[in-house]
Amino acid sequence: MSATQKEAVEETTTVEITATLRGQEVTVTIPATLEDMSLDAYDSFCDKPVAVYRDILSPEDWGKIKATGATLRDFQKHVVPLIDKEWGLTGK
């Protein structure tokens, strides 16, 4: 990794969110704002808005969510609103 790449990684701001899925609390790390997401995640945001939620999570965090047995409905009901709230995409 180049020095420039390291600086870019270090400047990215993240936050943790905790959701309850099927009775299990799961804490994952997301970019703090839309501007902090990777360009790959941004491509998904533009091309496939639903895919961005998966793309902003690390493979480990995505695995934690999947390990709960959560359905897409669970994910959309309990995780997506937390991300949207963190990013200021919802007034709730």
Description of the molecule:
With 92 residues, the chain is α+β, with helices and mostly antiparallel strands. The protein has a domain at 33-87. It has 6 helices and 2 strands. It has helices at 3-11, 39-47, 51-55, 59-67, 72-78, 80-86, and strands spanning 14-21, 24-31. The protein is globular and about 30 Å long. The mean pLDDT is 85.
Low-pLDDT residue intervals, each spanning 5 or more residues: none
Total of DSSP H or I helical runs spanning 4+ residues: 6
Calculate Rg over CA atoms.
Answer: 14 Å
Helical fraction equals 40-55%
Order of helices and strands: HEEHHHHH
Class by alpha and beta content: alpha+beta
Major sheet description? 2 strands, antiparallel
Q: Could you report the average pLDDT, rounded to the nearest whole number?
A: 85
Strand order of the largest sheet: 1-2
Terminal residue distance: 39 Å
Strand content: 15-25%
Q: How would the global form be characterised?
A: globular
How many strand elements? 2
